[in-house]
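Researcher: Quick test of sequence recovery. C-alpha cells follow.
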C-alpha cells in the first residue's frame, strides 16, 4: 500500500450563495504527507469533508484514485470511504459510548485497522479505554481521534485540526507516532492546520488556500526557496533589499534582519556575501502569512 491519490476538477462547494470551495483544481500525489494550510474561513475543513465523502460537491468533482479502486468519486461510495479516514477536531465520536466500543466500530469499518497499534498509542496518550467518551477531557478526546486516524492505516488519512485540544507534549507525541507509522506503512496523509511552524518539518507538499481558492501548491523545499532572510548592518541590508518584497524586519542596534519574498539571483547573492551579510532560508510560517495576505505593512 502506497496511498491513494486525489484529483479535483473545478470543485465548488457552496453554502447558500457563499462559495467555501471555489472552482478548485488540485492534485495530491499518493504516498506523501501534504499540508493543507489556510486562515480561518479559507475552506480547509469543507475541502477535507468533501474529499472524505462527507459532503457532496455543488459543482465539479472529486476523484480518489488508486490501483485497488481505480478512479472514483467518494460521495456515497462505501468502497472509497472505507479507505479514506477523516479525523476532525470535533471528533465525530459517539459521546455515550465507552472508548473500547469506539475502537470496535473503527475495527469493523476500516479494512487496514491495526488494533495492536491502537492499544499502544492509547497507552502512550493515557486514554482510558473503559471510560465513556463524554467523560474524557478535550485533550483526551483529541488524543483518541488521532489514535483512530493513525491506527486506521487508511490509504488516505486526513487530520483536520484534530489535535488542537492537545497540549504541546501530546502534539509532539502525535507527530512522532504519525511519522514512525508512516515510515513503516506509507500512505497519503493530509494535515489541515494553521499551526504551520509546528508541522512544517513533517510536510513534503504544501497546499495553501485562501477564500476557497488555491493560492499555491508546491514541495516544501521549493516553497522555502521562494524567500530569504538577510542579516547584517542595517544600511547595507536596506540597500540590498530596496527593490524586494519585504515580509518582516527586526532590528537590534545597528544590526538588521530582513525577510524577503522572491528568488535571490546569483548576482544579488554574491553582492550580499561580498558585503559580509548573512543569507538564510525563510520559514514556512512567514511565507504562509504573506501568501494569504494576513500581514499588513509589507513593502
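Model:
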Amino acid at each position: 500500500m502506497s496511498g491513494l491519490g486525489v484529483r479535483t476538477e473545478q470543485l465548488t462547494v457552496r453554502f447558500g450563495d457563499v462559495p467555501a470551495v471555489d472552482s478548485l483544481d488540485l492534485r495530491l500525489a499518493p504516498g506523501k504527507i501534504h499540508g493543507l494550510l489556510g486562515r480561518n474561513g479559507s475552506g480547509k475543513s469543507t475541502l477535507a469533508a468533501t474529499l472524505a465523502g462527507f459532503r457532496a460537491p455543488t459543482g465539479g468533482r472529486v476523484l480518489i484514485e488508486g490501483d485497488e479502486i481505480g478512479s472514483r468519486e467518494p460521495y456515497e461510495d462505501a468502497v472509497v470511504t472505507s479507505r479514506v479516514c477523516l479525523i476532525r477536531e470535533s471528533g465525530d465520536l459517539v459521546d455515550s459510548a465507552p472508548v473500547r466500543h469506539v475502537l470496535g466500530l473503527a475495527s469493523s469499518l476500516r479494512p487496514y485497522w491495526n488494533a495492536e497499534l491502537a492499544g499502544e498509542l492509547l497507552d502512550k496518550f493515557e486514554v482510558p479505554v473503559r471510560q465513556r467518551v463524554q467523560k474524557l477531557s478535550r485533550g483526551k478526546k483529541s488524543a483518541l481521534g488521532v489514535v483512530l486516524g493513525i491506527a486506521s492505516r487508511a490509504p488516505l488519512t486526513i487530520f483536520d485540526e484534530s489535535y488542537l485540544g492537545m497540549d504541546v507534549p501530546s502534539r509532539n507525541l502525535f507527530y512522532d507516532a504519525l511519522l514512525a507509522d508512516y515510515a513503516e506503512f506509507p500512505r497519503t496523509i493530509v494535515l489541515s492546520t494553521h499551526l504551520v511552524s509546528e508541522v512544517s518539518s513533517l510536510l513534503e507538499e504544501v497546499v495553501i488556500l485562501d477564500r476557497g481558492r488555491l493560492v499555491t501548491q508546491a514541495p516544501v523545499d521549493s516553497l522555502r526557496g521562494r524567500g530569504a532572510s538577510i542579516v547584517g548592518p542595517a544600511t547595507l541590508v536596506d540597500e540590498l533589499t530596496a527593490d524586494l518584497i519585504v515580509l518582516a524586519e527586526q532590528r537590534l542596534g545597528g544590526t538588521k534582519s530582513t525577510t524577503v519574498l522572491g528568488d535571490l539571483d546569483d548576482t544579488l547573492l554574491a553582492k550580499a556575501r561580498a558585503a559580509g551579510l548573512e543569507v538564510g532560508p525563510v520559514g514556512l510560517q512567514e511565507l504562509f502569512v504573506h501568501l494569504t495576505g494576513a500581514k499588513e505593512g509589507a513593502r
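The radius of gyration is 22 Å.
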